[in-house]
């Protein structure tokens, strides 16, 4: 299945980009803990950071721009 995906992406790149045949080499590695660990860590950190703002918007306590400003520690554009 991964080999099929490799070939589909290769053909798509050749068709959509100004690439000569044979210049594209697409290959996926199997997912290992060495590859997954930094991805999972980054996602957990983003959720940890932004979830309070997301919840505030969901429950109507803050506008999206204000929630992002609070989470990021910046002033909202709406406030000036």
Task: Provide a descriptive summary of the structure in words.
With 80 residues, the chain is mainly α. It has two domains: 1-30, no CATH class; 31-80, no CATH class. It is built from three helices and no strands. Helix 2 crosses helix 3.
What structural keywords apply?
single chain; 80 residues; mainly alpha; 0% strand
- Calculate the terminal CA-CA distance, rounded to whole Å: 52 Å
| Distinct helical segment count | 3
**What percentage of amino acids are in beta strands?**
under 5%
How helical, in percent, are the residues? 55-70%
The tally of structural domains comes to 2
Order of helices and strands: HHH
Q: Using only CA atoms, what is the Rg?
A: 21 Å
Alpha-beta classification: mainly alpha
The average pLDDT score comes to 80
Question: What's the shape?
Answer: elongated
Largest sheet: none
Unreliable sequence segments: none
Tell me the layout of helices and strands:
Elements: H1 2-16, H2 33-58, H3 64-72
Summary of the model, kept short:
This protein is mainly alpha-helical.
